[in-house]
Amino acid sequence: xxxxxxxxxxxxxGHRPPSPYAPLTGALAPVDLAEAYSAQLEVQRAFSRxxxxxxxxxxxxxxxxxxxxxxxxxxxxxxxxxxEVHHSPAEIALDRFRNLGLEFELALELSRDAAPCDGPFTAxxxxxxxxxxxxxxxxxxxxxxxxxxIDVLTMVxxxxxxxxxxxxxxxxxxxxxxxDALPVKLTQTGAAEVEANTSATRPQDSLAWVLNNAGARxxxxxxxxxxxxxxxxxxxxxxxxxxxSLEIAGALVTVRIT
Length: 258
Fold this sequence. Notes:
By secondary structure, this protein is an alpha+beta fold. It has 6 helices and 12 strands. The protein has a 7-stranded mixed sheet. α1 (3-13) packs across α2 (33-51). The longest helix has 19 residues, at 33-51. The radius of gyration is 17 Å and the shape is globular. It starts with a helix and ends with a strand.
């Protein structure tokens, strides 16, 4: 096997079952972001054998603060797989994960294919591709990584740590709303309600970035795929028995950790 296939084998094995996170080193270390994304394609092919076909995309490290923390000057992308798309109300088993994190996002469904030749996309042209907008939880699998020692190239190769999503219902009347200014409320067992706004992630810009990133790598993001557009709140690490509710502009997604 070549280097990219060796990286894919190493990372895929690390998720069956999830073992402690370790950065790629030595001969397996990606030399740059381009090679990390090339490795990611091989990892996604390996993951799809057990997780199903690609059903969506994600953006990570959308904020400048997180990019500086991870020593990179741009967001990163990953894929969501069909077997890991859950619908609200959902129950998620904690023992499926080495270390489960929850993030709080607006998910945008594509109305038609976005092929490389259709770009580059802007926030405005990307908005024109949206078929539905929904609240969503992202399920993060960081495998217990030490966040002070993250190697972002390994993170890219490892599909940006996406372990699935929980989708809520379509936001009523989203077509007339500013997707970059939707009110958000989070409730968590035993914690005070938290309010936020999608302006923290500018979903239309995030959608355009994801489509352009895929296009630059020769990938078509297909009609019906969901793009999650960045967490409006910091990651939470739930414990068994906790419940979470995320409301965006009147639509509610719920999850219980079992």
